[in-house]
Amino acid sequence: MFGFASDNTAPVHPRIFEAMQKANMGYYPSYGEDLLTERAVRLLCKLTGAKNAFFVHTGTSANILGMAPFLRPYNSVLCSHIAHINTHECGALQRATGARVLPILTKDGKLRTEDIRPQLNATGNYHESQPAIISITQPTEIGTLYSLAEIKELADFAHKHGLLLHMDGARFSQAAAALGINPEDMTSQQGVDILSLGGAKNGLMYGEAIVFFKHTDEIRYHIKQGMQLASKMRYIAAQFLELYGTDLWLELAGKANKMAKILEKGLDARGIKAAYPVETNAVFVPLNPATREKLLKKYMFYVWEEEKDICRLMCSYHTEEKEIEDFLAALDEAMC
To answer: Within this chain, do residues 252 and 239 fall inside the same structural domain, yes or no?
Structure first.
């Protein structure tokens, strides 16, 4: 099987394995008290302009535990209707915090201030959940990008109304590579308060980071209670040091984005138009049931919107042009 299902189906990058092997020598203090974790935290703070950072195992835990210190059970988190926290995290935020996820219908996965403003009518009404955080995904779940100006507008709007801005950056590297900017440009410079910084979708074995631009003393307790305090945290830290301490994050993300554009071009040449702009490493295209069933015998990918026959084809750093050529050849055969 060849993988277009997700960028986290790709193998671990060899340099990440090497970094973990180097960390596998001798004894280290546990639970993040080691030198590698200290160095990795300093690195992420320097890259993003953040106040602190913590490492966890999964993207879901990064999202939920990142917001947990700032939520009470009567609060709500405003997000796009296709946001991962709303569609693919199994109610984790509600279970962990008691707070409500309040999805807002969007045309392209991107929240806008005019979408959010009507939801603030509940503020001060004790009969309703109180909005506390605006959560955006960069890039969105359909691969579209927020510009820096759009992020800044949302952050300013959030702060004006006493809210925080959270960024789900599961594919943060792909977004930064596509925009040609550094991590600080897209976060602290625009007013982001909390960032879930991805790794597994860009060459890591496992591990994500919660990056805070707003101070909190509570996060350590939430991480422990949330069962995410890794005893051997050095192995997560070592991966982040190799990925973000070099240009590897940019190289891998840029490769994934490039492969998606090549795939889009090949599909377009066959009259198959992308359903959404291909701005990062995801390509969404309509494939009729007969065609996709033939392709699914050899290739892994997801049917994203079944009622419209839209499928998601995700490229990774490990995708090669030959794999795309073979897929397009198989597509030609399947459409005959």
So the answer is: no
